Structure formats: C-alpha cells, structure tokens
Amino acid sequence: MINESISILAVDDEESFLEVLNAALSAEGYRVELAHDGVGAINTLQNRVFDLVLLDVKMPRVDGIEVLRFAREHYLDTQVIMLTGVNDVRSAVECMQLGAYHYITKPYSISELTAVIDRALERKRLLIENKVLKSELARHAFAGNIVGQSKPMLELLTIASKVAPTDSPVLIQGASGTGKELIATFLHQNSLRKNQQFVALNCASIPEALLESELFGHEKGAFTDAIAAKQGLAEIANGGTLFLDEIGEISPMIQPKLLRFLQTGEYRRVGGNKPMRSDVRVISATNKNLEEEVAAGRFREDLLYRINVITLRVPPLRDRPDDIPLLVDYFLKTKVRPHGLKMIEPKALELLVKYDWPGNVRELENVIERASILCKDNLIRVEDIALPIGRRPVLPRDPESAAPTSLLGTAVSMREVEKAHIAGVLKSVGWNKNTAAQILGISLKTLYTKIQQFNLTKD
Ligand SMILES: Nc1ncnc2c1ncn2[C@@H]1O[C@H](COP(=O)(O)OP(=O)(O)OP(=O)(O)O)[C@@H](O)[C@H]1O
Ligand SMILES: [Mg+2]
Predict the structure, then answer these.
(1) Closest listed ligand to the CA of 286
(2) Which residues constitute the domain of residue 370?
(3) Residue 113: how many other CB atoms lie within 10 Å
(4) pLDDT band at 295, cuts 50/70/90?
(5) Residue 77 falls within a domain, yes or no?
(6) Are residues 176 and 117 part of one domain?
(7) Is the pLDDT assigned to residue 222 strictly greater than 50?
(8) Closest C-alpha to ligand 1, atom 23
(9) Cα(221) to centroid of ligand 2, in Å?
(10) Between the chain's N and C termini, which has fewer beta carbons within 10 Å?
(11) Are residue 272 and residue 364 in the same domain, yes or no?
(12) Pocket of ligand 1 (CB under 6 A)
C-alpha cells in the first residue's frame, strides 16, 4: 500500500478520540504516531518530520494553536489539519490563517476525515513538485521579468529553459495577451545567441506587399519607392534570433520563400537575384490554430512542420489564477509605482482572481493601470475595477448587507467607466475591433457606435 510511506502524527488529549483516529488511520495503511497533549506533540515533532499532523485545538497547557505555530515555523511542508469542537470554529479559522490546511469539526465521520487528509497530502505533493520545478528552473535559466509561480507556468518555463540553448525552431502558441512575446525573449536570453540581436517582426502589422522586403530586404530600384538598397530583418538578425510574431498572418505568396529560407538559410532580396545567406534561429508565435489554418488551405503544411519542431503553449490566465495576485503586485510595483505606491483591497483582488480574463495578462495589466488612475487614494477598491459588463463573475454576498456588493462606486459615472473600459480593451488588443467586440460581448456595429460616441482614438 502506498500509504505506508506516509507518516501522520495525531494529537488529542481525549483518549477515546485518539484511539478512534489511530484505528482508522492504521486501517488506511498510514504510519501513525500519537501524542496525548501539546507538549508531547512538540517533543515528537522535534524528533522527526511528519507528512501530516492532526491536531486538536483545545488542549490543556500547550494548545493546538501553539503546536501549529511550532510546526509552521519548523516544517513548512508538513500539512496540519485542526480537529475542533463545534464551539471553537472561530479559532479554527484563525488556525487556517496561521497556515493550517483545514479543520474538521467533531464529531466527524471517518470518510470525511480521510477525504480531507487526501486533499492535504495532494497539496503537499504539489507544493513539493513546484519547489522541484522552481529549483530546476533556477539552475537552467534566468526568468527575468516573467512573473509566475503556478504549476502550468513553471512547467512551461522549465520546458522553455531546456529548449532555449538549442537552435531548434520554436512555435509559441497562446491566446492574445498571454505573454508569447515575453516567452520568445526568454528563449533568446537563455540561448547561446543571447549576445546577438533579437529581431522581432510582427507579420500582422505590415501590408502584404511590404512584408517580403521587410523580411528579406530589397535592391535599389526593386519598386517605385526603393530609392536605395535595404537590408531585411533576416539579414540583420544574422547570428541571432528572428522572432516572427503572428506568423499565421503571413500570406501564401510569401510562405514558400520563408520555407526556403528556413530550410537552407538562403534568400533573395526583393528585386535581387544574388542568393544570400543568414544564420538565424527562428521563433514564431501565433494565437491562431495553425493546424486549422492548414486544413483551411491558408497555411502551408510543410512550413508548419518547419516552424513547430517544438511547440510551447502559453496557458491562458484563467488556467493559472494563482499567478493573478503575483501579477497584480508586479504591475503595481513596476507600472504604477512611479505615480505613488498603490495597494489593493482583498475583495478587489478576489474579484480579479475569479474573473475569466479573455484578454489575459495584457488585460489584467490594463485593468490595474486604469484602476490605479480611477482610485481615490492609494487603495484600489472593488469599485475602481472595471470589468466587462455581462462577463463579471458572480460576487459573493457581502455578509454585512443583504444586497450583492455593488461593483460601481458613485465617484465615477457609468459612462466614464464604460468609456475607460472600452478604451482599455481596445488598447489591450492593439485596436483589433473584432477581438475587442468579442471580449466586450457586443457586436462590431455597437463597438463602432461606442467609439464614435466616446470619441475614442488609437493614440
Ligand atoms: N508572466 C508575465 N509576467 C509579467 N508580465 C507579463 C507576463 N505575461 C505577460 N506579461 C505582460 O503582458 C503584456 C502582454 O504580453 P505579450 O505581449 O508577451 O503577450 P502576447 O501573447 O505576445 O500577446 P499578443 O497575442 O496580443 O501579441 C506585456 O506587457 C507583458 O509584459
Ligand atoms: Mg505578441
């Protein structure tokens, strides 16, 4: 039985409870030790490390809270579950603030107990797994300005740190605003090419006719405006990394030329016939599903195989809510700080953690920036946070009042909030109106009307 390797210390001053615990846990195969009071518990804890401690709250002389403090101070990985009478639920809550995993109210059923134990052990396993990932990451790479401690993010960075020092082409897939560009720079900074250039080309921002010359350069007289020869980014990136952002937007006309360059390192300037060479490592990014693009005939399959030797998927923010408080803190310190230190009230943070973030980290960054402008003093409150109407999560009811917590304060009008919000979303998606309308949950036509009504402009 796998439970044999798991050690549990059960502490209770009531003999009958302790016996029941002992019998139940031994039956599950755990290695159990017993302590009859707080002093005994601390003595035992000093001698060896336990995976889990079941701890009665009320005990004479040294109570459960003191034992908990001791355990938290010396063994951070050890999970503690409090056992409490119906009347000390208040102190049980205090215990959780001190780091206990959970509490169970007596009398409890064995199945209830084992369910909580299972979850606590699972949490311990995850904590340790995260520590391993983090130390592995620290050995391999410099994560620079990437914020993230969640499991999906640590896993991504671990793989990225292994891929970084190779010359393999990497395709970074992820929704808008998830941090694809940040991962691309991470790959470069942790590569052998880190002292050479990182050259980024956004394939979506350049008209098709100019993209080829942007990428491969042109000779003098290649077209009407080509009054002098010009180096392309492929040439400029020689020895370094070429980042092709939004690669899904590259037109079928240019795709074969790019493919040839990736296969042979050779290209020709527009209007030139001399074959040229450049040694670059190519990293691409897209928020499209390129397999679907291939199926639809918009993207060449052979090109996809070339660029996605390794695919990294950046998880959407809603899949890593643990990172939200860290990101908020980071944005408050780096983006907002120059205008004075701001803090955020717990309720507002909770709102952010529960929201589903269709615009991902960029949207969060904008929400924080806006909230810090709207807030009255140095504290960001729930009413300072403008999240799209209709997509807001249901708020927990305020225990003080029967009505649900109001999201909109009285300091700013609805109109202002709406205007700020729409402007923020537009900015966050680089004024891509289709995406903005989707995020806002309104039609494109309504969006145009709002843009006009609020007199919104791109700059
Ligand atoms: N893990 C992170 N830690 C800190 N900042 C982040 C993180 N992820 C994203 N950001 C910030 O969020 C913003 C968006 O990130 P980035 O431009 O890398 O996303 P993207 O996936 O390339 O977006 P798009 O698809 O819109 O091009 C940037 O300002 C970036 O610095
Ligand atoms: Mg990007």
Answers:
(1) 1
(2) 318-453
(3) 19
(4) very high
(5) yes
(6) no
(7) yes
(8) 177
(9) 33
(10) C
(11) no
(12) 145-148, 174, 176-182, 287, 327, 330, 361-362, 365
- Ligand 1 atom nearest residue 202's Cα: 27
Query: Mind listing the pLDDT tens digit for each residue in 405-422?
Result: 333 333 455 677 778 888
Q: Which of 313, 330, 353 is the last residue of a domain?
A: 313
Q: How far is the CA of 324 from the centre of ligand 1 (A)?
A: 13
Counting ligands in written order, the one closest to the CA of 363 is 1
Distance, in Å, from the CA atom of 205 to the CA atom of 224, rounded to the nearest integer, reads 21
Do strands 170-173 and 79-84 pair parallel, antiparallel, or not at all (unpaired)?
Answer: unpaired
CB 46, CB 5: distance < 8 Å = no
Count of structural domains, the chain:
3
* 314 CA → ligand 2 middle, Å: 12
Q: Hey, whose CA ends up nearest to atom 12 of ligand 1?
A: 362
Instruction: Report d(CA 249, CA 213) in Å as an integer.
Output: 16
Q: Which ligand is nearest to the CA of 313?
A: 1
User: What does pLDDT average to over the chain?
Assistant: 86
Residue 306 in tokens: 């070339």
Counting from 1 in the atom list of ligand 1, the atom nearest the Cα of 323 is: 1
Same domain, 401 and 443: yes
Q: Which amino acid is at 233?
A: L
Looking up residue 85, the CATH number of its domain turns out to be: 3.40.50.2300
DSSP code for 354: H
**pLDDT value at 339 more than 80:** no
Q: Can you tell me which atom of ligand 1 is nearest the CA of 184?
A: 18
pTM over 0.85: no
Position 134 in a domain: no
Q: What is the DSSP string of 226-287?
A: --S-EE-HHHHTTTSEEEEETGGG--TTTHHHHHHHHHHSEE--BT--S-EE---EEEEEES
